[in-house]
Amino acid sequence: MGEQTPTAADAIDNETRRAVFFTLVSEASPMTPSDIANAIDDNRQKVAYHLDSLVNMGLVISDGGEYYCQPLFIDPSFNDEVEDILSSLTPEVEKRMFLGDTDTTPERASKILNCIRLSFTMSLFPEDFDRNN
């Protein structure tokens, strides 16, 4: 049987891989495996293993021994666009939710966005949220 194609959930399902990825995002500049290992207080070999996985997933770019995350992860305007897209789902999601009449507009909007974000997260881990069983 062939190797399964990694998913976005695979990027965050391991504590070390998640730390490696988020370190690259927060640093927003190329780093060596040793730099990352020092930043997350782990060993270089383990970091290198997880970097290879992240590169294979297309989330991280390797360039001459240095690694950096895809630029979209550090682009604030892209993050704003993603938030706008999630917010555009609000009317449809609101129809499917029970919201109390006492919720103020900001509370209501916050609850709706929380549900949208969690639904998106659940879609990354379908095996953990099997709605059919």
Which residue ranges are poorly predicted, with pLDDT under 50 across at least 5 consecutive positions? none
Average pLDDT over all residues: 83
Q: How many distinct beta strands?
A: 2
The helix fraction, in percent, is: 55-70%
CATH architecture annotation name of the largest domain: Orthogonal Bundle
Largest sheet: 2 strands, antiparallel
Strand order of the largest sheet: 1-2
The gyration radius over C-alpha positions equals 18 Å
Write out the CATH superfamily name of the largest domain: Winged helix-like DNA-binding domain superfamily/Winged helix DNA-binding domain
Query: What share of the residues does DSSP label as strand, in percent?
Result: 5-15%
Determine the CATH topology of the largest domain.
Arc Repressor Mutant, subunit A
Number of DSSP helical runs: 7
Highest CATH level, the class of the largest domain: Mainly Alpha
Q: What general outline do the C-alpha atoms trace? A: elongated
Q: Provide the structure class.
A: mainly alpha
Distance between the termini: 27 Å
Listing every helix as H and every strand as E from the N terminus to the C terminus, the arrangement reads HHHHEEHHH
The count of domains is: 2
Can you give me a brief rundown of this structure?
This protein has 133 residues and is mainly alpha-helical.
Key features of this structure:
133 residues; 7 helices; Arc Repressor Mutant, subunit A; two-stranded antiparallel sheet; mainly alpha; 2 strands; 2 domains; elongated
